[in-house]
Amino acid sequence: MCGIAGLALPDDLLPDASLVRAMADRLAHRGPDGHGVHAMPGCTFGHRRLSIVDLSPLAAQPMRSPDESAMLTFNGEIYDFAALREDLVALGYVFRSRSDTEVLLHALDAWGDAALDRVHGMFAFGHWSAPDRTLTLVRDRFGKKPLYYAPLGDDAARGGVAFGSELAALLVHPEVHARREVDPAAVAQYLVHEFVPQPRSILAQVRKLGPGERLRWSARNGLVLDRWWTPRTGVRLRGDERELTQELSRRIERAVSRRLVADVPVGVFLSGGLDSSFVAACAAASHPRVKTFAIGFDDPTFDESAHAEEVARFLGTDHVTEVLTERALLDLVPPTLDAMDEPHADSSILPTTMLARLARRDVTVALGGDGGDEILAGYPTFVVDQVLSRLPASAAAGRLLRTLAGLFPPTDTNFSTAFKLQQMANGMRSHGAERHARWLAPVDPDTLPTLLGPALRGAAAHGLDAARSSGFGAATDFDAATAFYLGVYLSEGVLQKVDRATMRVSLEARAPLLDTEVVTFCLALPERLRLRGTTTKYLLRKALGARVPKSILERPKKGFGAPVGRWLRGPLRELMQDTLTPARLRATGWFDPAVVERAMREHLAGERDHRKLLYSLLVLEHWRRRWLEAA
Q1: pLDDT tens digits, one per residue of 273-284
Q2: CATH classification (class only), 241-376+495-554
């Protein structure tokens, strides 16, 4: 796991190595174990290394081919690299290191574009081909690793392109820094999703590569973007339920086994939920006394640590739990906001960062359960959608739900009844991916124009762009919702949150449930084996069987978050009010001060639950002051 950066320029110009080094050094937290820069005519790559496989200098990056015809800067892990290495040796390739980086470099030489179909793992990389002066940027199938890029000049063919693992690296480039203007459509999408979905970034000049996408740049053709992998939905497996259960178990077991390979200590994040418990069970089966990690909260409505400890005792893992005080989480808010080079309003980044810090004391790699909810219909919204799909979508139904929501007083518990009814009402006017996006939205897309000020009001129509384009041609609402969760919510929300939280402490996070074999199998399962009545992740529960205590199989899903609603009325109240002052809002023209002021007043009085809206605005405005106003 690493940080990558680079520049490609036309006419065999030699990009400034000191500039690329400075870009890479902004990513030092992603790779504290080593650094490197290499320049070729037309291209310079930078790299920060977190050593995981082959800790020797032979695996250092950027890595060049023996004849200097190609160069690679690579962030991630290739889990099937040993088998690929054998195939390449049979073709005559000679290896200097034991690294997966060298395997990827030779695979691209041997098989060209077809190499990506053979490669399975998490990755974002830049590859330079010297003979044809072409830069290729690639992101893995599910977007586990981020990759930003910025065309330079008014024409990318003549100006070149810069790229990096984080927006902060690109902002080191003088042109990107000088032209850092917010993208109004990105702000609208952020307020709908709590993050900015690809292909946009929060800055107008900078873009993000999407999951399964590839970008080529050359002085001849400029930027050419294509998709090298697309998840398939609508293909249904046939087979006996027992056979399918066994096959799911086998695939998850293989996926976990592949992700336990490392030359550094490996552990498991354990929440006590189905997904992380399955991963921990598989890890414990092959590595007795594997280390597992969990955090608890002094607020019982957010605490899951007892469930994690129950699973750990059952499996016999070497378990570590740390109970966090509210003060510890609150102390993390200012540095977390400062570190966000792109706004991300999912408050669970706070406990995720604390969990990563806990694990990093003992291990360098941690396996988690990310992906299970997206590929196996694990979210309660799938159950609600199944019920509501039998009713006509109407404004009247939405009004009824809002009326019901008003009968329940707002509370600070995790997902209160009033909050859930209000969010459900927001989705009644739509279906499929758009309905689920509305259910998760901090701001109802229909009311977005009233919130936005004159500088952004015209962008309100873009709020649901990502949800509307996420279906990949899905034939059913169920498949469209799955595609949204997998291609937008997971890749740009959950995985980027986990990437930032873990990389901030130089910890590599791996997601076995997002193994290609596991995902393709689950997406091909009939709906009834993913969602049966009110039972989510039906087949996964069957596959878990006796691997975990029965109580774990039967417990309802619980989110991983922080008590932001209460904080905004208490310890974060002053920060919120100082950040979202009417004078500042009027000066930027981004938001209507009266609308924001009313939301704060209602929330502080306990009349309405505006936690998601107010926290999203707090994060965004803090980002603006930190990254746009800075010299």
Answers
A1: 999 999 999 999
A2: alpha beta
